Each structure stands twice: as structure tokens, then as C-alpha cells.
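Minutes, project huddle
Topic: does the predicted pose make sense with magnesium ion bound?
PN asked that the exact inputs be recorded in the minutes so nobody has to dig through chat later. Recorded below.
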Amino acid sequence: MSTIRFQALKETLGRKPVKVEEIGKKSEIFGTNVFNDKSMRKFLTPDAYKAVKNAVQHGIKIDRKLADYIAMGMKEWALTKGVTHYTHWFQPLTGATAEKHDAFFETSFDGSDPVEKFGGDQLAQQEPDASSFPNGGIRNTFEARGYTAWDPTSPAFIYGTTLCIPTVFVSYTGEALDYKTPLLRALHAIDEAATEVCKYFDKNVKKVTPTLGWEQEYFLIDTALANSRPDILATGRTLLGHTSAKGQQLEDHYFGSIPTRVLNYMRDLENECMLLGIPVKTRHNEVAPNQFELAPIFEETNLAVDHNSLLMDVMQKVAERHEFRVLFHEKPFKGVNGSGKHNNWSLATDTGINLLSPGKTPMSNLQFLTFFINTIKAVNVYEELLRAAIASASNDHRLGANEAPPAIISVFIGQQLTKVLEELEGVSTGKLSPEEKTDLKLNVVGKIPDVLLDNTDRNRTSPFAFTGNKFEFRAVGSSANCANAMTTLNSIVAKQLKDFKAEVDTLIEKNDLKKDEAIFNVLREYIKQTKAILFEGDGYSEAWEKEAKKRGLSNHKTTPEALKAKVSKKAIALFEELNVMNHVEVEARYEIELEEYTKKIQIEGRVLGDIARNHVVPTAIRYQNILIENVRGLKEIFGKDFEKIAKEQISLIKEISEHIEGINLKVGKMTEERKKANTLTNAEKMAAAYCDKVKPFFEEIRYHSDKLELLVDDEIWTLTKYRELLFTK
Ligand code: ADP
Ligand code: MG
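Predicted holo structure (C-alpha cells), as shared on screen:
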């Protein structure tokens, strides 16, 4: 009997839901462990408080002396909550968050005067031993050191007994080594560009803040079951496993009642989130069995990204208490829906306006249309770069797999707005007659709000959809750091808004047009230029692939192919112009992502080869031996008649041999290809070799293994099966 699998099942079936204490009304506990406005007012001097506020709102640098006071206040606050350590909390390009804890505790060199200490220096900057974080060659060329520096725009928080200070992570020479640095720069760029454009409509706007509301999908698997699968442990997904007889066909899981064990996990998680100031609001079952989703109220983008990264860490930690493992992988199970992380995005002004929400007056609607059409234009120009921003080995399983958005980037806007754009396309060139202006105001721009209310058709197959008051970027992977997608999206829109402003200003100055005339003129041209990116139909269909090709849209199905757009001249020029990244930073990131891709496929290949040869083949042989024993017995009893009686067994024996041969052959070939790929020194070529030469064997090996799973006696099969992973509650 295969012990691990059956022990795991027994353990899982015996689990009781873990009790979760209610710790108070959400509104009362929210942000208790965050150094938020309330705690800052209490623990900071007025000067120090003002310095933090100015840094957050206006990007004003914090004076060193004040940093000392802020640190002191932060420490006092943390000590009242039993905190012993502090850490700079950052997001290196590994995909996980990083922290290195130091105690507040200090003594004099002779051990006297023990005291809890934390000064401005420790708050502002640290030098973690960062040599093992990915740097894409940046540090080799310059200096081996990396620095973390305080990001006052994201508040410090307490996790466990540690004070966590969100920081950026940069090299000695200032190059970004993390996700946060370019994101902050992109947010700054779009703030500047969008504020300028807002001034056409309202001179009082001083700041525009991009907002992000992510939706996190995930799978929950019992710890014992997860531990019984070496592939899940090493790669986060199942590399083998025949689909379960019952999958998601019935869709009976979607929005169904949440099992108690899971519900308790969610409640526990939500409590933690409340304390950490992560405003989670929604929870529900997703389409696939054991798949769930969680979504917060949207926030300022930098904070939202931090919260998502923190959440993913907290989710795994809370799951331990409930004997669950969270799978963030985009496609943990073949034949079952994968997970994404929808990024809902919009722009908000400091005057309280959502720029992607239609307004009440024709003028505010023209403002809405301006931002709406500029976003579409940005996606049209930079669709390849946007695709590159969400590329990863794991997300490749989802994009283009006819369940998640395709690898083709397009924009869905709905019927009514399509009509509005069609009408705007007819706007006259140059000056507009008073009649035309009135008509536009009354019948086109003025009509938008009513029109949108019944614009409820939502196209689930679109990667980038307008959903009434925001765009939803749906192709982001569930395991991704949102920063990658958000840096790109905000950069391309920033660039577009800058160009738009320049074009409108030129028309006003050179062609003597009125402001609104100039805006209508530029928007009309944009509408004409962006038709290729708009698509309302079924994104999963083959017809769309053909049509998209005709339209000249990219369709990069694999990461190595998709990533190339990151280092195109166009992309580098964009990031340099906006000061988001210089070419060294861009190229380093490209290299890092290629390496990560290669490593992921390499690990999967190794694990697959190992499981196939060391679990599947020996199990198949064991079963085959049982069959052989049986045939031998039949021969003994029935003599020459045995062949007829043992017919089925004999054909099974042969079939098993064929699949064993298939596995051994394919694993051998795959290993050869891996060896060849490993000799390549160029990261791009190596990733391509892993993608095109190594990875294709995965499916072939899996095919034989999954066939064997159907043939071999269930009692001796060692790998926990799909039905057990997906349906054991
Ligand atoms: P649904 O899509 O189910 O109708 P909502 O439209 O309320 O739900 O929002 C879905 C997600 O979009 C939520 O995570 C929410 O926080 C986010 N969201 C709503 N408005 C905005 C906005 N202006 N900017 C960014 N995200 C938003
Ligand atoms: Mg959504």
C-alpha cells in the first residue's frame, strides 16, 4: 500500500475546522497594527507628523533630524504593542517579499545600559547582505552592495512581533533592484502628466493618484495532501495526474457555500488583514473546485501593491494554522480553471474625481472621454509591452489556454461606448460650428451617464476591459507582483497623456482652436488610430486569433517570446523619457526574468523526470509483476487454455510496458535537451531552448504517466490523485 498518499488522505479526512475567535468589529480593529494617521498623531511631535504628511502628499524629503523623531515615535508605538524587532521590508525581484530582522535591543560594549533603540538612520536606510538577490548583472558591473531606503508613502506595520518598514531596494549606484522603485517613479510620471491634462478641465487639480483594486484568486489544498505530492512542493503545480471524473463541469462550486474549514481560514485571514490595514471586502468560491477569491476595497496603487504582496505572505502563514497550503500558481491543475489576479485600475484627482467615471456635465464627460480614449490609445501603442509585463512561465499556462484572457492584448469597452466613439469620429476637422458644439454637448458627450448605467455586458474573455468606472486588466497572473503590470500600465498612459497635451497645445497655439475644439480634434484622430485594439467578441475563439493577426496585434504565447518587447527600442525610450528606468535597469530586468523562466522550467523538468522514473515507473512495474504472477497462476491451473483466460491481463502487461518505455525514452530525451540548453551562455537563447526544446516533453511524459494512472491498481498508486486533491474537504 502506498503509505504517504493514504496517510495524507486519512489525516485530511480527520481534520476539524480550526476555531477562530472574533476579535471585534472590523471598523474598530482596522489598521490597529499600522502606524497610520491615528497612531502618528499620538506618537509623533507635530513637526514630525507634518514631515511625514508632506512626504506622502507632496513628495517632500524628510529632514534627517526629523527622521530621528519619527523613528523614536514609531519605536514607542511599536513597544506598546510588544514589538521586539524591526525590519526593512522590501520586494526584490524574486517575487517574494524580503525581510531581515534586527532587535531594538542594544547595550554598551561592556554589556551595560541595555536599552531599546531605533534612530533615524536605522529607519531611513539599511544595507542588507543582498548578494543573493537577482540583479541582472547590475551589481557585478558596479558594486556588490545593495541598500534599502524608507518609503514613507507606505506606512510601517507590525507583523507578529516585528515592526516592518516598507522600503525600496537599490544598488550602490542607485539602480532599482526591486519592484517598488520603478513603480514609484511611474506613479510620479503619471501624476505629473495627468495633472497637466486635468488642468484643461479644472485648474484646481494638483495631484492625480492611480488607484488599484486587485482580486486575488487562489487554491487551497490540505497540507498533508500537498506534502504528498513532490511536484506541488517543488513547483507549486501538479506536473502529472489524470483529470478527475468529476471536474468543474457542473460549476457547482462557483459562488457555492464555502466549506467550514475554508470559511474559518478566510475569517482568520480577514482578521489579520484588518489588523494590518488591508481593506479586504469580498470572499467567495471560484469556478474550480477548491478555488477561491479575495478582493479588497481599492487603494492608492503603491499601497495596494504592498498590501497584495503582504497579503500573499499572510495567506500562507494563516494557512499553516488551518493545515492548508495556498497555491498561487496560475495553473496548478490540468483541465481545471487557473487563477489570475485582476487589476482594476483608475485615476483619482485630489479634488475627489474618478477620471474614468463619467460625470454629470458635458465638460466632465469630455474629461472622462479624454482619459478613456488616451488609455485605449496607450494600450494600442504599447500592447506588446503590456503583454510582456505579465509574462511568466506559470502565466503561460493561462494566457491563450481558452479560459483566461488570450495572449493577445485587446480592449473591451461595450456597445454604448463604442457608439459614442463612432459619433466622435465624425467630428469636423479644425474649428467646430456652434451647432456642432451644441449637438456634441447634448447628444454625444452629454448622454454618456445614462448610457453607461445599462452597459452591463461584461466580456470575461477580454484581457483589458472597461467596467463602468475603471479598466480591469485581467491577464495578470495570480502569483505575480502587481507592480510589474502597474509600472507598465501607468508608464504607457503617462507617456500617452504627455503626448496628448503636447498635441492639444499645438492645435490651440498654432491653429488658433479653442481648448475643447482642440481636444475633440485630437481625440477624433486617436479614435481612428486605435481601432485595431478594440475587440468586443469572444477572445477565446480561433477566429479572433486570425483577425488579430490581420490587425497586426501581437500574439506571443510564450514568455521568452513575449519578454522581448521589454527591451525594444520603443520600451527603453519610454522608460527613459519618463525616468522610470534607465536602459541598464530595463536590460537587467529582462535578464532576470529570462533567468527566472529558465530556472522554473529547469526545475519542473527535473522534478517531472524524477517523479516519472522514481514513482510512476516503479509503481507500474510493481503492478505489472502482480499481473505476471496472476498470468503465471492461470497458466498453472488452466494449462494451454490460459491464453484465452488471461487475455486481458496479458494485454495490460503489454500496455504497461509501452507506457514505461514511453516514459523512459522521453525522460531520456528531455534530459539530453536540458544538458544541451545548459551549455548555452546567452540568457535569451537558454530560455528559448528551455521553452522550445525541453518543455514540449512535459506533455508527452505526462501522457504516458496519466495513462498508467488509469491502468494501475488504485491501492498501490503512490501519487495523490486529482479527485483527492480537489475534492477532499
Ligand atoms: P464587481 O466587478 O464585482 O462589480 P466592483 O466593480 O465593485 O465589483 O469592483 C471590483 C474590484 O474593482 C474591487 O476590487 C474594487 O476594489 C475595484 N475597484 C472599484 N473601483 C475602483 C477604482 N476606481 N479604481 C481601482 N479599483 C477599483
Ligand atoms: Mg474581476
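Observations noted during the meeting:
- The two ends are 23 Å apart (CA to CA).
- The chain is about 50% helix and 10% strand.
No decisions taken; revisit at the next huddle.
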